[in-house]
């Protein structure tokens, strides 16, 4: 589990957020090295390759994003 205290990802955008090269904040300067939108896509692909899944939600503890990689038993 990874959690943060940032703005999170609204439920309606979570499916879009895991697509490659997706960046949800167009206001950020695209040329400042702040990422290219691959992190969540890679995490999802790695989880699936090992029989798991990536679940995104809201962190009850910190208020931002909560990301869980879940593996079947």
UniProtKB/TrEMBL annotation:
User: Could you tell me the superkingdom of the organism this chain comes from?
Assistant: Bacteria
SUPFAM superfamilies under this entry? ATPase domain of HSP90 chaperone/DNA topoisomerase II/histidine kinase (SSF55874)
EC annotation from Swiss-Prot or TrEMBL:
2.7.13.3
Q: What PANTHER family does the record tag this protein with? A: SENSOR HISTIDINE KINASE TRCS, SENSOR HISTIDINE KINASE YKOH
**All residue ranges annotated as the Histidine kinase domain in the record:** 1-73
The taxonomic lineage of its organism, from the top, reads: Bacteria, Pseudomonadati, Pseudomonadota, Alphaproteobacteria, Rhodobacterales
Record has Transmembrane as a keyword: yes
What the entry lists under Gene3D superfamilies is as follows:
Histidine kinase-like ATPase, C-terminal domain
Q: What organism, scientifically named, is this protein from?
A: Roseovarius nubinhibens
Identify the stretch(es) annotated as Disordered. 1-33
Q: Is this entry keyworded Nucleus?
A: no
Per its UniProt record, what Pfam families does this chain match? HATPase_c (PF02518)
- GO MF annotations in UniProt: protein histidine kinase activity
- Catalytic reaction annotation: ATP + protein L-histidine = ADP + protein N-phospho-L-histidine
Q: Which GO terms describe its biological process?
A: phosphorelay signal transduction system
- Any one of the GO CC terms: plasma membrane
InterPro entries, alphabetized: HATPase_C_sf, HATPase_dom, His_kinase_dom, TCS_sensor_his_kinase
Q: Which UniProt keywords apply?
A: Kinase, Membrane, Phosphoprotein, Transferase, Transmembrane, Transmembrane helix
- This chain's protein is named histidine kinase
């Amino acid at each position: 589990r990874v959690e943060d205290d940032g703005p999170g990802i609204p439920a309606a955008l979570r499916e879009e957020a895991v697509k490659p090269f997706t960046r949800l904040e167009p206001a950020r300067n695209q040329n400042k090295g702040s990422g290219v939108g691959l992190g969540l896509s890679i995490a999802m692909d790695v989880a699936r390759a090992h029989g798991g899944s990536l679940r995104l939600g809201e962190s009850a503890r910190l208020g931002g994003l909560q990301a869980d990689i879940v593996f079947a038993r």
